[in-house]
Amino acid sequence: MLVAAAAAFSWWEGGLHQDSAAAHTSVLATIAALLVTAVAAGVGRQAATVGVWVRGPVSVRRHFAEAPEATVAVIVWIVLVLAAIGWDLNSFAHQSHDLPTLSWIFGHATSSHAGRAAVFALWLTLGAALAIGWRRPR
To answer: What is the mean pLDDT of the chain?
Structure first.
């Protein structure tokens, strides 16, 4: 039921004009709702206390030393993010239409109703996963 409601909301959002007040308001309301949901769903359910979380980077370094495959995965993600940033910087520096920026690609993808709805649904799914997807009882 929740998935159907999210799909319907994404389709409705996709039908709004990108620069309309309704589109901006619904996105802000969605962000607020996900933040409230994250706080409500996370109370007492985090896998670690705040103190453990603050000291986390020390244990992360130890984990990388013990699990080299995790280190490789992190390095791959860092390279992908840096490549995307480098691509955009290069595209902006040359101002060439042969080198489209990520914003141009997303603008082209979201220019249609279906494309905007699909991107919004992906954004909504990512937000829900970050807000409540990884919570575990202690």
So the answer is: 78
